[in-house]
Design a protein that fits this description.
508 residues, mainly alpha, two-stranded parallel sheet, 22 helices, 13 strands, elongated
Length: 508
């Protein structure tokens, strides 16, 4: 079994945010760069926020993104179960073990008693009232009850929790691989709940127990968990697991595009950009959030983009395959400061990856977008169009709209450009040009270009007088791809038909 073992441990309380995907990616790159294992663990202990379908979404998103699971999910493994809801008996045993050794205690406080405690401490000037060493002896706990009284309360079914008994003094010190030495004073920490009376553990207990039993060597997670690490270190010490304690690394936030505050799904809705790898529909409201996939991103481009949101390889290169990312990745080159989510840069990456596809590969990637658009096409023409259009799109989803004129006569004419370009002699020019194009034996790019340019020269015309009209007739826009290959793909019959229709069109 590899000595480098990392876990990605999402909670199925909703879709996988792009920040969560980046956490998974950094874990994956780190362990693969060292020949280690990537473990998926589903932390489903928060039953109040559990969302149906979220777990499958996580699996699907990782699969689409190209992050391969070594243990957990369908891969299984020898150190499971890999879902916390299947380990409840273990958490109960470990929590009671801490109680028996004086490192934790039962608390039987009612909600009313807790509210009263918080109110009193707030009145005394505390901004965030804590349940800590200064009050634990005064509360309704096993610390001031006899063993008999404790057993009677447990047997009677009274509500209870097991709280960690945080040391009254001392300093928790650990080294973060990104942030260096981190210190927390114990007298500033509270006595966190480890286990609830329904048998469900809190994140803190389950997290530490699972990491120990799964032999996790490195914990790489978001910076929001940095303050919790003090408790986790204390738990390792209380369990006498110090020698097995993993190394920690806390990743910077992904910030809103404007640079202030953590990127949220509301930002995605507000700015019309994805913040999830794949589409997500809220079960309760039916609200639909587009993902990178549905917006037209290639997974390799998305991965390349998010890899550089916080990690700097220190070289000029920006385009990296997954294999190159694994080869270059170093956790020490992850920054401390938050990384701004630049959607324009994300689209730039996608454009670079689209350019690398063959026209046949691109045709396969865009087919589903054509099917959604109801634009009818055939494979041969689609491949031709992809070869001509791939330099003009940033998103796969853009291609149906930008290439509609190749497949349908139902395209929009830029009437403003037409009025500006249409002159008194335009009809005569196009009528004569029709005769020239109709005489072509082979309607190929080179032949079309040759006869059109010869026509312009012999008539003493300018390119600016003829080519814009030909472009508008064929595609309705001045922003289309190269003109002569466009005409070849459309074919002689269609080009002649469209020029004829333009001549007849009302130009006012």
């Amino acid at each position: 079994m590899s000595t480098t073992r990392v876990r990605f441990a999402p909670s199925p309380t909703g879709p996988l945010h792009i920040g969560g995907l980046r956490t998974a990616l950094y874990n994956y790159l780190f362990t693969k760069s060292l020949g280690g294992s990537f473990i998926l663990r589903i932390e489903d202990t928060d039953r109040n926020r559990y969302v149906s379908g979220a777990e499958q979404y996580i699996l699907d998103a990782l699969n689409w993104s190209g992050i391969k699971i070594d243990e957990g999910g369908k891969a299984g493994g020898l150190l499971g179960p890999y879902k916390q809801s299947e380990r409840l008996s273990t958490y109960r045993v470990k929590a009671e073990d801490l109680v028996n050794r004086g490192c934790a205690y039962y608390a039987f406080d009612t909600e009313e008693e807790l509210e009263h405690m918080r109110a009193k401490r707030t009145e005394a000037g505390e901004h965030s009232p804590r349940y800590d060493y200064s009050i634990r002896e005064k509360m309704h706990t096993s610390l001031n009850l006899s063993k008999t009284e404790v057993q009677e309360k447990l047997a009677a079914g009274n509500p209870w929790v097991i709280r960690f008994k945080t040391p009254e003094s001392g300093t928790v010190v650990f080294t973060d691989l990104i942030r260096g030495e981190i210190r927390f004073e114990c007298n500033q920490l509270d006595d966190k709940v480890l286990l609830k009376s329904d048998g469900w553990p809190t994140y803190h207990l389950a997290n530490v127990v699972d990491d120990q039993y799964m032999q996790i060597s490195h914990v790489i997670r978001g910076e929001e968990w940095l303050s919790s690490t003090a408790l986790h270190v204390l738990l390792y010490q209380a369990f006498k697991w110090e020698k097995d304690m993993p190394q920690f690394a806390h990743l910077p936030l992904i910030l809103k595009p404007e640079g202030k505050g953590k990127l949220s799904k509301r930002d995605g809705a507000r700015l019309g950009m994805p913040v999830f790898p794949m589409e997500w529909k809220e079960p309760d409201t039916g609200d639909l959030f587009l993902g990178f996939k549905e917006m037209g991103f290639l997974p390799e481009a998305m991965i390349n983009f998010i890899a550089l949101l916080g990690w700097n390889p220190g070289i000029e290169q920006e385009i990296f395959s997954m294999e190159e990312l694994i080869g270059k990745f170093s956790i020490e080159k992850v920054g401390k400061a938050g990384a701004r989510f630049d959607f324009d840069k994300a689209k730039w990456f996608n454009h670079q990856y689209i350019q690398k596809l063959s026209q046949e590969e691109l045709a396969k990637e865009v087919l589903s977008f054509f099917e959604k658009s109801d634009i009818k096409t055939d494979n041969i023409k689609l491949i031709q169009v992809c070869g001509l259009m791939k330099e003009r799109i940033q998103l796969l989803s853009e291609l149906p709209g930008k290439s509609q004129f190749f497949f349908s006569d139902d395209f929009k004419m830029d009437t403003k450009q037409l009025r500006n370009r249409w002159k008194e002699d335009s009809e005569e020019i196009l009528t004569n040009l029709l005769d020239v194009l109709s005489g072509l034996v082979e309607f190929k790019t080179e032949e079309i270009e040759s006869v059109v340019k010869t026509f312009i020269s012999e008539k003493g015309l300018s390119f600016g007088k003829v080519l814009p009209l030909l472009r508008l007739a064929s595609s309705g826009t001045m922003e289309g791809p190269d003109l002569f290959p466009t005409l070849e793909i459309l074919g002689s019959e269609k080009v002649i038909e469209r020029i004829t229709n333009l001549i007849k069109m009302d130009k006012n």
